[in-house]
Design brief:
Strand content: over 45%
Order of helices and strands: HEEEEEEEEEE
Number of helices: 1
Helix content: under 10%
Shape: globular
Length: about 160
């Protein structure tokens, strides 16, 4: 014999199992397709280097903020979003533990001397002229794969003279 189920429990089960789609919430963030990624490049790391840096621009064409929190690539064990600051003449790099926010309608430029990607624990050497893929991970917008171009050692911008 089945025991009666309290009305509140029955309503909760019905709501959870209901095939009706839930309405969008005001807290939703940008989708990957609203993010335009350009000028992805890295200077060739010196032979034997264990880290490398990556630079690019991210334009958010959506109506919600996007937060870059990391990513993956085959050339390194892990990838972090970093910032560089000068403190008393000393360069300090640190991870941005909450990632980098790109507001709606704005462009974030990751470049030498500022925010950038760090390829930590390089597992393969890349040379000028080569390319490799990086899958960028955004907190709510998902993932987006971009191709990075390797520039000559010492390059400070994606355009060479």
């Amino acid at each position: 014999m089945l025991k009666p189920v309290p009305l509140a429990v029955a309503a909760l089960v019905t709501a959870v199992l209901s095939p009706t789609p839930m309405p969008a919430t005001a807290g939703e963030h940008a989708k990957a397709e609203t993010l335009k990624i350009e000028s992805a490049w890295t200077p060739q790391p010196p032979n034997g280097a264990k880290v490398g840096a990556g630079y690019l621009t991210i334009t958010n064409t959506g109506t919600e903020p996007a937060r870059l929190v990391g990513g993956t690539t085959s050339i390194s064990k892990r990838m972090e979003v970093h910032t560089m600051t000068m403190d008393g003449g000393i360069m300090r790099m640190r991870e941005l533990p909450d990632g980098l926010v790109v507001k709606p309608g704005e462009t974030a430029t990751l470049k030498p001397g500022g925010e950038h990607l760090m390829f930590m624990g390089l597992v393969s050497q890349v040379s000028a002229g080569e390319t490799f893929d990086v899958t960028l991970k955004f907190k709510r917008a998902g993932e987006k794969t971009v191709t990075f171009k390797v520039m000559p050692l010492g390059t400070r911008s994606p355009v060479t003279n």
